[in-house]
Write a structure and sequence with these properties.
Rossmann fold, single chain, 17% strand, seven-stranded parallel sheet, alpha/beta, six-stranded parallel sheet
Length: 733
């Protein structure tokens, strides 16, 4: 029923809205709205196809041309001028999945919807910035309760209007930061967000170019009649009718006194009947698109911006001054807050409050063409110096950099289950919990990280399809030799290479082995996971690597409740039978002659059991949640690998309160200690391994000793110690 009510409300609102459009703009207005709707569908399709990350996404909740241009198109250019890349869409094209592709979300006048709420939630889970942006006091009802526009609305129209304000406030409350076009707006946003910024309306290159062209063309057109003085008033909304009433008496007196003065009125304005006597000197022009508008301003000599003295109006921006300044036209404006900051009275324009002040300012400009030119040129210089997207964008960029989380990306060759991939995901998931903005780049087109568990579900996965990335990464870390080659082609502030083993030993073709070895001296900062890896990198390749010891998730792998030794004893074998270095065959050979009652559970990430293997249960590609249960349900882990850079299963079995028989190898020697936390044997010595299993099955005292030692070892390998080292490294300047 709730969905039906929402649909009913949406349809009703659309009917009301399009009814107003038809009344004001006729059939062409409806066509324009349909065009915008089709454009929004295009944006929706376009953003769904993104396979490379971008820096920011501006989501516009306003379909009106001027606000969307200033706070959408122009703000986009502000950030592009600072070297960032991004997109601009309307809010009804936004989807939750977009949280994975962008780092900063700027929500301009966006009313809350389920999709917007989910997008913000997902973005914040990924430590990405959500910024609410607005250019009017339209996020609290108290600011509009006395607005005269409400009196002209029907009950239904008023409710839709106020509902939009309430929904914008809800979006604001969900965001981290707030930006507004004026100081008053930003002051009122402060209670809802962590930090705010005044990001004034700026002027894009194209916007300036269009006005410059209108200035040059208009200058030639008007040069033949210098006696005529035209005062221009340019209305952008119905609210300006009320503002015009403030100076109508002054304008009537001016026109009565000066027969060469004309009045140019454009946009949404009802002409007062008092001007009927001057209708031959009142020029009426309709509202036009932004690129035609400069010609209207150029047609006048003096730009006027009357505005009622109210808190709402004092929060409005200085746009009307800027637009006139670009075509060198002087402005007389009411002394509202933004105009006081942008207009230096008598230098770049005039400020007027009383009728006398308005009359005096207009009289000066009407009688003095040189003064008009002087103020117009000064206004132009001031505007170009302070209001371009380049200038305004510099402060905006600093604000974003101050609050943005460091962006750390790992390049993975695959998302399939393996020890090396698990370590990389552990790094990222834990860095994300510590406030970093993390992601994965991969060329792997299949699968996901569901097998890893809930801690990985918020890590964005970016598919590299061979096109250059537009964004720049703060930290980019390779995880296997092939990814080390790839990250050399990607722009990043710092690059690292996480080495987890001698990959060149496991490649059949020698030419690949040479390429692997070459990556160790590629200039990347080397990281490694074990002392053994650190040792051979130095001894064989003369490369220093920083040790980030592999840890264990003690919240996942911990002492199992009511763990008892089974009879028959349950023996767990782990490894890929197709991988020679995993040496799984030896495990099954050890068990062939085992004389005590036992059951064999076998788990493999990839390959299937060989025909001669004898086992009771088999598990393939078991997710981590399943592995925790297997460690709890089995008594002894038999691990017979020939070579491991770091062997995880023995450590996980120790943390679970089980015992291990492990073939001695460099990847486990770092923490596996014979007689302290496990029993070890020399590779190939099957009888010794077999006797260890028998001893563990029969000697309760030995088992307890090893369990205590194993739990102590696991606690020392808690991931938090390694992550402290990694966080300090990645945070280093």
């Amino acid at each position: 029923m709730e969905k039906v009510r929402k649909l009913h409300r949406y349809v009703y609102q659309r009917i009301i809205a399009y009814g107003h459009v038809f009344t004001k703009e006729g059939p062409l207005g409806i066509i324009r709205r349909m065009y915008r709707y089709i454009l929004r569908l295009f944006y929706l399709y376009q953003t769904r196809r993104i396979t490379s990350p971008k820096d920011f996404l501006i989501i516009s909740g306003c379909f009106l041309d001027a606000p969307h241009r200033y706070r959408g198109i122009h703000q986009k250019e502000q950030l592009e001028k600072q070297g960032l890349c991004g997109d601009l869409i309307f809010f009804d094209a936004a989807t939750e999945a977009m949280a994975d592709r962008y780092d900063i979300f700027i929500l301009y006048r966006v009313p809350i919807t389920d999709r917007i709420r989910n997008l913000i939630k997902r973005a914040k889970q990924q430590n990405k910035l959500c910024i609410f942006d607005i250019d009017d006091l339209l996020f609290e009802e108290k600011f509009v309760k006395d607005r005269y526009e409400l009196d002209e609305m029907t009950k239904q129209e008023r409710e839709i209007y106020l509902d939009g304000i309430r929904r914008q406030k809800e979006t604001l409350e969900l965001c981290d930061l707030g930006t507004g076009s004026t100081e008053i707006i930003v002051k009122e946003m402060k209670p809802f967000v962590k930090d705010t910024l005044v990001n004034r309306n700026s002027l894009s290159d194209l916007f300036i170019e269009v006005h410059e062209r209108a200035y040059k063309e208009g200058k030639e057109d008007r040069s033949t009649d210098s006696n005529e003085v035209i005062i221009g008033y340019f209305s952008g909304s119905k609210s300006h009718n009320h503002d015009f009433q403030l100076i109508k008496d002054v304008l009537k007196e001016i026109m009565r006194k000066h027969s060469h003065v004309k009045l140019l009125l454009t946009g949404y304005l009802h002409i007062p009947k008092e001007f009927k006597n001057y209708e031959d000197r009142v020029i009426i022009r309709p509202f036009v698109k932004w690129d035609k508008f400069p010609k209207n301003i150029m047609a006048c000599d003096i730009n006027i911006v009357p505005s009622e003295d109210s808190y709402f109006n004092n929060a409005k921006s200085e746009i009307k001054f800027l637009e006139a300044a670009l075509v060198r036209k002087p402005t007389v404006a009411s002394a509202r807050d933004a105009f006081q900051k942008s207009i230096k009275h008598g230098t770049t324009g005039f400020l007027a409050e009383t009728k006398k002040e308005w009359k005096d300012c207009l009289e000066k400009l009407i009688s003095d063409p040189k003064l008009r030119r002087k103020l117009g040129e000064a206004a132009y210089s001031h505007t170009i110096k302070h209001y371009t997207t380049q200038i305004i964008g510099e402060n905006f960029y600093r604000f974003l950099k101050k609050h943005a989380a460091k962006k750390i990306t790992y390049y993975l060759p695959s998302l399939a289950i393996s020890g090396g991939i698990i370590v990389a995901i552990e790094h990222l998931s834990r860095l994300q919990k510590r406030g970093f903005n993390v992601s994965i780049i991969t060329t792997y087109r299949g699968g996901d990280l569901q097998w890893f568990g809930e801690s990985a579900i918020h890590i964005p996965i970016i598919l590299n399809i061979g096109k250059p990335f537009q964004t720049k990464f703060d930290i980019l870390t390779a995880t296997m030799w092939s990814t080390a080659e790839q990250i050399m082609k990607i722009d990043a502030q710092k690059k690292f290479y996480l080495i987890q083993g001698k990959e060149y030993l496991f490649l059949s073709e020698k030419r690949y082995a040479k390429r692997v070895k070459k990556t160790y001296s590629s200039g990347l900062t080397l990281l490694t996971v074990s002392k053994w890896c650190q040792s051979w990198l130095k001894s064989e390749f003369d490369q220093d690597a920083l040790l980030i010891p592999n840890g264990i998730d003690l919240s996942l792998f911990n002492k199992c409740k009511d763990k008892n030794f089974h009879n028959p004893v349950r023996i767990l074998i782990e490894g890929d039978p197709e991988s020679e270095h995993k040496n799984v065959d030896e495990s099954f050979k050890i068990l062939e002659g085992l004389e005590i009652p036992h059951r064999v559970w076998f788990v493999s990430y990839q390959g299937k059991p060989k025909d001669w293997y004898r086992y009771d249960r088999f598990f393939q590609r078991a997710p981590r949640s399943k592995m925790t249960r297997l460690f709890c349900e089995c008594d002894i882990l038999l691990k017979t690998s020939k070579l491991e850079s770091f062997s995880y299963p023995p450590l996980e079995m120790m943390a679970s309160g089980g015992v291990c028989v492990v073939a001695a190898n460099p990847g486990s020697d770092e923490y596996v200690k014979h007689g302290v936390n496990a029993l070890t044997y020399t590779l190939g010595n099957i009888d010794t391994a077999r006797s260890h299993i028998v001893a563990l099955a029969k000697d309760v005292k030995l088992r307890k000793k090893l369990v205590i030692g194993g739990l102590r070892t696991a606690r020392k390998r808690d991931w938090k110690y390694s992550m402290n080292i990694l966080e300090e490294l990645y945070n280093g300047e």
